[in-house]
Amino acid sequence: MMTTDSPSGSPSDPVDRAPVVPGREEPAVDGAHGPLDPVPYDPRLDDLAGLPAEAVIEKKQSRAGRNLPAAIGVGVGLGILIVGTLLIRKESFLPLVAVAVAVGMWELRAALRHAAVRAPLVAPVVGMVGMLWAAYVQGPAGLVVAWALTCLAVVLWRGTGQLDGAGRDVMGGIFIATYPPFLVGFAVLLLAPVDGVGRVFVFLITTVCSDVGGYASGVLFGKHPMAPTISPKKSWEGFAGSVLLCIVGGSLTVHFFLDHAWWIGIALGIGVAMAATVGDLMESLIKRDLGIKDMSHILPGHGGVMDRLDSLVVVAPIVWAVLTLLAAKPG
Questions:
Q1: Does the residue 17 lie in any domain?
Q2: Number of structural domains the chain divides into
Q3: Per residue in 143-198, pLDDT tens?
Q4: Is residue 1 domain-resident?
Q5: 157 falls within a domain
Q6: CA-to-CA dists, residue 271 to 26, 86, 153, 165, 321, angstroms
């Protein structure tokens, strides 16, 4: 039997009168961005304590906030590609470096737009190719000259348009032309000599030692933050692990690849650990200032190319300086 109708003309039913609870609006996911677009910064990733259960699940992927299996897979794949180019013919390493740096420059330009900086891209990328070639053929002087010409090209490019915001745009373009291409030029300087492949292996292995030592020690023992306002997960315990593993890796690689004295490896390891930490913190500071989490998400588990180059670009000049000044002669 039908009950008395409700005012709307529909049957009266407790279910019909139940209040409607609006659905929760889901946040946008990374997939809504292009692979080279900066990933917006999410402060919840600094500390997952107190978050709902679904957010805590993310922590199981990695205490560093990353998808650890994906990060390892991408890292191994990139490692095989790099080692393969170095072993087949060392000059084949140059195009690989150029492509990686070009993508990193693209990411930086996109990130700087968050600060209303309209930096050029064509002039710095063309200049980057010139810097890498000049470093390989002409050495340090060629690298510096090519960098200076690139900066001049950036100034001339911006000077042809309206002057409103020109200073900001020029500084952004010079920044893109310096970090990373000029710094990566020191890695090319390492490659140029007869024993260049060995020097590059020393550079790459010690940098990896810094990352692995810092990550493992930080996860296991990290209690004292190094720079909590810049990178909350970076600890002094992690830095100590980075230094120790860099010293071991530096001593072994310098002796095995270059036949130099073990103490050079110790000096190299300490310098690499310090430079890699500075590079990490500098990249974190840039991203926080721009309000982004990652430079992009083109590399699963890693973020963007610049999120992987941050340590390498700062370490390269240090390794070049140490091997040039201390390891000019064996033993």
A1: no
A2: 1
A3: 999 999 999 999 998 777 677 778 899 999 999 999 999 999 999 999 999 999 99
A4: no
A5: yes
A6: 45, 24, 34, 38, 10
